[in-house]
Amino acid sequence: DGVVVSEKVKSNNVDVKIPEPELEAEEKGAEEERPKESDSNILDVSSDYPRDKHISIQRHLADLEKLADLREDERKPCPLCPEEKFKACYSHKLHRHLQNLHWKVSVEFEGYRMCICHLSCRPVKPNLAGDQTLSKMGAHYHCIICSATIIRRTDMIGHINRHVNKGETESRFITVRAPKSSYEVVKESATDVQVLPNHSTPQKTDSYFNPKMKLNRQLIFCALAVLAGERKPIECLDAFGATGIMGLQWAKHLRNSVKVTINDCNENSVTMIKENCHLNKMKVKLNIKEEDNEETVGDGEENSDTIEVTKMDANVIMHLRSFDFIHLDPFGSSVNYLDSAFRNVRNLGIVSLTSTDISSLYAKAQHVALRHYGCNIVRTEYYKELAARAVIAAVTRAAARCNKGIEVLLAVALEHFVLVVVRVLRGPTPADDSAKKVRYLIHCQWCEERVFQKEGNMVEENPYQQLPCDCHGSMPGKTAVLLGPLWSGALFNTGFLRRMLLEAVQYGLDEAQPLLKTLVCEAECTTLKHFSTHGPGDENKQEECGVYIKTPNTAAESYLVHGKRKSEEVLRGTAKRQRAEHSAEHPPFYYNIHRHSIKGMNMPKLNKFLNYLSEAGYRVSRTHFDPMGVRTNAPLVQFKTVLMKYSTPTYAGAQAEGPVHLPGEIQVGEEVPAAAEVKVEEAELAEDDKSGASAAVLTQSYPTRCAAD
């Protein structure tokens, strides 16, 4: 009855004619079968739409009328309605019916109109209301791209938009891969990658590329470059490749120093990674576990321009193989992959992970943070550092389950992500030492003073005594909350950060250099004006911080190759380095200068305030977590005292006298009492003058009153 009766499918150069019942069954199940099809079933098609499309898809209204003109009778039926719904009528009445009921509610796409169809193309559940309701519920649209049948017009428009975002704009009633002309080529750090037009807002089956994560990729590259300078070649894994941009940058810049493996579990992402490798003139070595045969593009020899591409779950590949460097960047939290990452990572290797579930880490969804990280957090002024320490605590527990300890090299928390880079230390002793650094935090909700709970298992009678503030004694009720468990150790390694900065300068990573300078100053707890890229004690400092560098003496690293236990000398040296690191460790957390400002007073400039705290004898630095944050070992009471001392009143009358009363210099303080005495005398004289004037007025007015009486 006007439905397509044949469809030509090209298979092995043979034209096969499909009967009508089979074609209808194929159209009904097309939407369910499309996600199961692999790239092997994808056919190359032309850009022109095929002629064997559904009759409801036409370019002009006259084309629909021509379908009705095929009948020679004067009364013509509607080609898109069954006989029981719309009986045959004359041409003028049929024209009005097609225009109002089919053409006006159609969905347009590239010159074609997908009109609503009332034929029995779509299976409808049985209904006892009657044939009229049954035929009404059977109204639907036919997709021009995938032949799916969709009931609502708004759903049809969204369905077509999803095809366009994926680059599927060709029609063969099968899943069509996006043509290369629809790709966008993005260049970052001398690396070209092809991305889909919807790379910023992808679907679940698409590859994701976020330009805002460029800084994150540069920091990870610097960390890998430092590790490549310690020993080579190293095997590194990008567990969630997506477009493969990160692994391509590693292989393109570090060359012979690294053996890159890019993994992704999505078939479309793996195909795009292979194309991006060829775009950057890299050879691809395929190792897809689902396939029986392994395909190798290039020579059988190991080549510096060869990238291994795998298609499997990230947990599986980390269980099967060992790596020196592993980077985890899943969508959201990475806690589900930590156990697999630490199981086979090599000793003194590096594990970096990027967490983008900032809503839970930044205490906007506290129940999610408790569920994922097992950590109780609240919104504080130092919430970003709180998030970083919560992630490191989860990493520490995962490493300890594999009898491994960690050394935190870098922890960055910015607007879009939390990046943590740790070095893996094998053995139960480093694991125990790292596990001891996971503690609870006591946080005062009134003044936001905080302190880590003391070590030990004994229950204290009054835990409020550990807080430096006296809010519990002056305020009614409970004033503090217990947060954690959190990482209580250092967040940065100064020697490693300095070498990262040198690598960033060498490779011209301009966006990472300012942040790395801030991190070095934050790790040393010093201001930027005392910063120097090359210091005389850089090498010694790197050794004290526990960073292993290439030295002539390899006795301390011989146990790594042969798997032997450490000697007593190495253990003593490690203990000394840990003591030195602990003594030079930066103070935990920071204070926001706006949060503790005094009402009605103008604060000093932040750099001047840092100098004032430094002159008072405290360690002080800025922090990347908060542009107005101050990291210092000064208690909150001293912090507020210095801030109040160098603040000036905001009202206009006292601004002129501000430099006299609060000049910011100790010598001027001696002149303040004398000035106060002069002002007191002037005030007394003014009062005497006022009293004398009032008495004169009374004497003048009293005779007048007597005369009036």
TrEMBL record:
PANTHER family (alphabetical): N 2 ,N 2 -DIMETHYLGUANOSINE TRNA METHYLTRANSFERASE, TRMT1-LIKE PROTEIN
Catalytic activity: guanosine(27) in tRNA(Tyr) + 2 S-adenosyl-L-methionine = N(2)-dimethylguanosine(27) in tRNA(Tyr) + 2 S-adenosyl-L-homocysteine + 2 H(+)
Keywords: Isopeptide bond, Metal-binding, Methyltransferase, Nucleus, Phosphoprotein, RNA-binding, S-adenosyl-L-methionine, Transferase, tRNA processing, tRNA-binding, Ubl conjugation, Zinc, Zinc-finger
Organism: Mohoua ochrocephala
Record protein name field: tRNA (guanine(27)-N(2))-dimethyltransferase
Gene Ontology molecular function terms on file: tRNA (guanine) methyltransferase activity; tRNA binding; zinc ion binding
Annotated spans, Disordered: 15-47
This protein's GO CC annotations: nucleolus
The organism's place on the tree of life at top rank: Eukaryota
Annotated localization: Nucleus, Nucleolus
Biased composition (Basic and acidic residues): 26-39
Family, similarity comment: Belongs to the class I-like SAM-binding methyltransferase superfamily. Trm1 family.
One BP term from GO: tRNA N2-guanine methylation
InterPro entries membership: SAM-dependent_MTases_sf, Trm1, tRNA_met_Trm1_C, Znf_C2H2_type
Gene that this sequence comes from: Trmt1l
